[in-house]
Structures are given as structure tokens and as C-alpha cells.
Amino acid sequence: MSTPGDPAQPDLESCRGTMSAEEDAKWLQWVTHQFETIAGEDREINLQEFKTALNVKESFFAERFFALFDSDGSGTITLQELLEALTLLIHGNPMDKLKFLFQVYDVDGSGSIDADELRTVLQSCMRESAISLPDKKLDQLTLALFESADKDNNGAITFDELRNELQRFPGVMENLTISAAHWLTPPAARPRSRRPRPLTSAYWHNHRSHLLCLAAYAGLHVLLFTLAACAHRALGASVMVAKGCGQCLNFDCSFIVVLMLRRCLTWLRATWLAQVLPLDQNIQFHQLMGWVVVGLSLVHTVAHVANFALQAQSGASPFRFWELLLTTRPGIGWVRGSASPTGVALLLLLLLMFACSSSCIRRSGRFEVFYWTHLSYLPMWILLIVHGPSFWKWLLVPGILFFLEKAIGLAVSRMAALCIVEVNLLPSKVTHLLIKRPPLFHYRPGDYLYLNVPTIARYEWHPFTISSAPEQKDTIWLHVRSQGQWTNRLYESFKTSDPVDSKRLSRSLRMRRSQRKPQSFQCQPVRSGAAVQGAMASSKDVTVELTSYRPRGTPQHGDPGPVPTGTEESAQAQRRTTSEWGLCYIDGPYGTPTRRIFASEHAVLIGAGIGITPFASILQSIMYRHQKRKHICPSCQHSWMDNVQDEDMKLHKVDFIWINRDQRSFEWFVSLLTKLELDQAEETREGRFLELHMYMTSALGKNDMKAIGLQMALDLLAKKEKKDSITGLQTRTQPGRPDWRKVFQKVAAEKKGKVQVFFCGSPALAKVLKGHCEHFGFRFFQENF
């Protein structure tokens, strides 16, 4: 493991000298244990066992690490060799790590790194980070890094030149390691988890309406239970409990439907009540009330069963127990003594609905089971009216609102079938639908609708966020990710269809300043089969093929002009043969928490994967309004902004953070982001209204030996070309996950006004973000999808 100019082996004891004796003993014990779990009977590790344990995607790094770990060249690694190598990598100083890195890059052992060796290393780095770039781009990355490091232009990179190049990236050399070797690092002792303190000012700031409603809900139940129980205290404890639970059930079983009146909730969002009521948590409250209904029903049933058992046992009633429980003979109830049998039927229906509403049913491709069993609320209401003498009074107002909303929704959604103007299939299994916009369909950025495609499922309606801006008058955009049974059938139905013709789509991405009109920002739909969303963006002319379908009979539209599209990675361009696929029905629009964005001063939009969909519409609308306030002098080309903002928009700054797992996921909206960057290209970075932050979680960071070379090359080429090699945006795509503390510290330091964070993504990430928002005093809003 010698390096040019330094043949000595690393000093094992000096490398471990920073550890205490106890820590050193634990580390040795852990490494020995891990070694024994992967070593063969000969107590040595061969190359294949090493690859399996290291869990690397590219064999190049496994073979290079193995060759360097195998100091005696025997073809196997002993425990002592492993300890020496890991001591260097885990506990070594920056210079030792740099020497090891140089040996990895110096494939032929010549003491220097030539361009071909560097290209091989960068290609392996790309595979480790799941990054796919054309060979031409790989050559450009290689030359960028090689020319930057080879200061003397002798055609080779020496150890000193590599060290000097790495020193341009602060903090990298000190933290350089191999992330895949975590299995040889002892697990850190977990600190005791601190319980959340719900009474802190930050927690109260973000949850006050939620907590107040929960308190009012609990207090109302206590009041209803107490009044009903006291009114029947002469009949015994079991009857008191049953009547108390029954009175609470009267309220719950009628009010639970109010939480799902989407049109009413959308209307309430436009009123001052949106600041008081937790309208964003309507689904969570609906689920909570479902649990409460089940719990109260069971207690209500057990109390009545206990009462019937006491009556039958004491002889207070001439009827036997089973007659009291299952028949109408005792005359219990206000409709021909039907309280007992209707109660049993209600309990069975409720348990069936409850079981089929579980997430394992809804998310396992059995949505129809959830949907049809949930429709049992209609017979349940009928049974409840028969079962309880006063339930109809509780149901009167909610029931009228419910049936009015259903009637309006049915009339609007089935008034006329809409034409699907075009369907574009993206390689990442995202279906981009362009639907003809109805004349009276008015919506706000971030709203969603329910979609029904009869050829997929006649009775199924599924919610999708509208990804086009309201200013786009002709079409409505929907981006549907293939994640469940219905969405997969939608994607596959177009994918397997027979093409009528194929057309290669070429678009220029050279958006010249003379062609741009800042005062007339237009969100134009795709017309001629070229999707606005492509695989990647580029600043050069490229040929793009996308799977595109248009129903027969759909008129051809004119060319909308230069539209940013993708790169070389794509699918075929085809057209659908029948007009059936051009028909669908929509129900909506319905409001979401993102409506609050325009009332914010500093908005931070965070999307994870397809969670960007609500923000696509919002970003387009924001930039439209921003450009509307912008003016340019025709003589001197000086630009200025109106101080008067529109009534609905108080935004001073927008930070958009998009986190994706892999490179392909950026194809959804990267062209939209390219256009947004171009619209503010003339503004300084400090004065930009919209700032983008892109993260790719599958990419390894600069601190990893399997990625440092690639990340350095990407940085150098991005500075040279003024655009990112992964997405084509001016914004550099960062590897790994964001450091949320640093991100929010930067946002707080900008002091652009009160900060509100809007998130659409996984619940696990939402919890992390919510904790950081409470720490910094930011308002947090989450969109459920």
C-alpha cells in the first residue's frame, strides 16, 4: 500500500492514537466479529466475499480496494491486513487517505494518473451514483478535471497535483471515507430520544387550531355523554353507559360526513375561517372520528349486552337473552321494536367498513374493496334512523349538505365528457395527460381534481393535482405516477397500444433573449406531440423521442415556438388509433393547503419525487404574476418592478427544493424549471425572486472516495458551461440529502419576511421537516397525496 514518494506503510498505532483505550478495544472487537461473519473457513476474505460485504454497484472499486487491502498480494485479505487498511480509512489523517485515493486512481501503478485512467474512474463513479450521461459528456467531465489538476501540462496528474486540486474543496480531505464500509464501523450508541414537548411556543404556533379543535371535540363528547347518562340514571349503570355512547354516536355518525364535503371545504378556504379551523387536517379528523365511532359502538354494544344479560338472569324481563338481543319481540326501539336487530346489523357493517379502510387494503391494489365497502354509509344511515329515535335530527343538516354536494358534483362531472387532447408517457412511468379545459372550470394553483377514465374503470374516481397554471386557458395538465393498480393500467394501456405513425420530435433549447418577452409570460400546452417534460434539459439542439398519443380526430395545432424538452433518453413517439381514449370525466377543482402560498412573504416549497406536482402549477403562476409586474424600457432595456403587488400575492421570495431518488425522476418538470430560470436570467443571484435547490439522493457525496472525482468534475464543468450536467439547469444538482438545519439557517438569515414551509412527499420526511420548522419558528403545511 505504498505511494510514490512515500514507500512506508501507515503507522497503525499513530492512526488509532486519537481513540481511547476503551474505544479502541470495542472497535477491534467489532471489526473482528464482522470479519468472522464474512470470512471463509480459512479465516481469509477472497475477492467475491469482499464484493458482497462492501455492497458496491461497480466492481472496479471493489477490485481496486481489494488489491490495496491485500498488502502481500496473496489474493486474500487477512484480519491483520483488514485492520491496517481500515485504520487508515476510518481513523487516518487526511494525507493518509489522500495517498490511498491516489492509489485507487493510479490503476497501472505508474505513480501518476493519465487521462484514460481518470476516465475509467469517473465512469465507475457515475455507475456508483446511478448517474447516466452520454460518452461525450463523460469525455468533457474527464477533460475538465484533468486540465484543472494537471498544472504543468505534462499529460499526467501527480500526487501533489491531486492534493492541490482537492484542497480547492474545503472539508473534503478531512472527511474522506468509504460510505460502503459502514459495516466495519461500530454502531454509535443511540442517544435517548427526547419526548416531544407539545406545550412549547413553537409547537403551539404550528398546531394551535388543531389542538383547540381536539379540545372542543373531546369537551363536546364529555358534555353529550354526561347529559345522556344523567337522563337515564334511574335505569342502572349499563344503560347510562349505553345511552351516553349512543348520544355521542348521534353526533359522530352525522358530522363525520361533513369532513369529506370537498366543495364546502374549498369554499371555506377562501374565508377567514381557514385561519381558525384546521381544514388541512380534514382527512386525519375523519379517520380519528372513524376510530372513535368504532370504539363507542363497541362500548355501546357491550353495555346493552350486559343490560340484556342482567334482565334475562334476574327475570325482570319475560324474554330470553337471545330474544332481547336479536328479535323485535321485546318491542325495543321506536320503529316496531327494531332497535336490537338493527344494532347488530349496524355493528357488522361498521366493522366491515373499518376493516376494509385499513391502509393495507387501500394501498395493496384493492382500492375497489375500500371504495365499495365505504358506500355502506348509505344503508348505515337508514339503519341508524330506524335504530335511534333522534338520529334523524342530527343528520338533517349534514345530510342535506351531503346530498346537495353529491348532486352538484354528479351534474357537473357528468355534464359532458372531456377530450384528452394528448398523452405523453415519460420513461419513469409517469403519464402526462393534457385534457381540454371546460369553459367554466376555474381553479387556483395547487388545486386538485378527481379523474374518471371509463375505459380503465367505469366507477373509479382518483384524485390528482393539477400541474398546469390557471393562466393556461386551453388545457389542464395532470401528471400521474404509476404506483397503484389503476395508474399502472392507465400507463400500460397506452404503452401497449398500436401506433398509427411515429414522429421524431426535435426542439431547440436556445431561448434567445430577443425571442423572450418578459411581460407576456405564457404557459402553453404541448401541441404537436412534443411534451414539455423531457428526460433532461440541454442548452444545445437535440433530437427527442417521447411516447405521445393523440385521439383520432383531434385537430392539429400550430407550433407554440421553442419549448424546452429533454435529452437523448426517451421513448418512441406514437399516436393512439381510437377516439375512446380521448374521453374522460373530471370532478373539481378542490382546494389544498398550498393556497396559502400566495399569502406568504417567504415561501419554501419542498417536493420529494412526484411531490413536485402541486408546485408545478404554483411556480408557473408565481412567475406569471412576477413577470406581470416587470417592465423593460424599450430604449435602454432597463428593467424595473412595480412596487404594487396584486391583492392575492404578498410573496417576496420563493425557495424551491426538489429531492429525487435518481436521475430519471428529474425529467418530469425540468424543462419547466429551465424556463423559470431563463425568465430571471438577467437578475443577480441575490436579487432573484425564485431560487432552485436540486438534490439527488442516489448520488454519493464528495466525502466518499467512490464519488469525489466525479463531483469535482461536475463542479468544474458546471462553472465552465454555466449549467448542470445532470439536469441541464443552471442550478447545480447536489448529491445526497439536504442538511435541513443548514438549509433553514440560510432561509432565516435572508430575512425576507415571515417564512412558511410547504411540503408534499413522504410522511417520514414530513416529521423531520416539521421538527426543524418548530425549531426555527416557521409555519409548516403538508399536502396529503
TrEMBL record:
Membrane association type: Multi-pass membrane protein
Localization in the cell: Membrane
Any one GO molecular-function label of the UniProt entry: superoxide-generating NAD(P)H oxidase activity
Region (Disordered): 499-523, 548-576
Domain EF-hand: 57-92, 93-128, 137-172
Keyword Metal-binding: yes
Protein name (record): NADPH oxidase 5 isoform X2
Organism per entry: Panthera pardus (Leopard)
